[in-house]
Specification:
With 193 residues, the protein is α+β, with helices and mostly antiparallel strands. The protein contains four helices and ten strands, in the order αααββαββββββββ. A hairpin with a 5-residue loop joins strand 5 and strand 6. It is rod-shaped and about 115 Å long.
Length: 193
């Protein structure tokens, strides 16, 4: 009797509401409609359609969160001593950027260049510029800098690559982080005879 009653109830529901179509559920099928990938608008969640201003604020870099330092070695530089060492003497420039904030920063770069530096003599003449001596790819890149982490960029500059000769005196070495000119440092290089 129950069985007949439940069949009768199902028949009444089908007649009252029309036929109910079944949904094909197959785990091997793509369950996301193609239109979800074709448009970045709508109310569905996607990391690609966030508010650009909000994303920009989240990725903003506070230059005050970084300590930057440039070191020159050897310093002071004795021209007589370095020329006695070998046929092509060089000076080593090291630029370091230290994140002392409590948050991790992601630094974005439009090319493969990460830093730049130049050596300037006492009269303001540019003795060497790093970017004049190097080529960079147009490849976007990022560097994550965790709390208390440091980025270090070393480079040796051969005396032959300098546009002006090193003479005794005081030079300024200026270094900047590419795409973040507010993160910079400078140091003095003393050249002795």
């Amino acid at each position: 009797m129950r069985r007949i009653l439940s069949l009768f109830l199902c028949l009444v529901i089908v007649l009252a509401f029309g036929p109910v179509s079944a949904i094909d559920v197959n785990p091997s099928k793509d369950t996301l409609p193609a239109s979800a990938w074709e448009s970045n608008t709508g109310n569905h969640f996607s990391i690609f359609n966030g508010d650009p201003k909000r994303i920009q604020r989240a990725n903003a870099v506070d230059a005050k969160s970084f300590d930057s330092k440039v070191e020159v070695s050897p310093n002071p530089l004795s021209l007589k001593a370095v020329k006695a060492v070998g046929p092509n003497p060089s000076v080593k420039i090291t630029f370091s950027v230290h994140n002392h904030a409590k948050k991790t920063y992601t630094l974005s770069f439009p090319t493969t260049q990460r830093w730049d530096f130049r050596i300037i003599n006492a009269s303001g003449g540019v003795v060497y510029t790093y970017t004049d001596d190097h080529a960079f790819l147009d490849t976007v890149g990022t560097s994550m800098v965790n709390n208390n982490d440091k980025l270090v960029y070393p480079e040796s500059v051969d005396f032959d690559d300098m546009t002006l000769p090193l003479t005794p005196g005081v030079y300024t070495v200026q270094a900047i982080l590419s795409n973040y000119p507010e993160i910079n440092a400078h140091a003095q290089l003393t050249v002795q005879p």
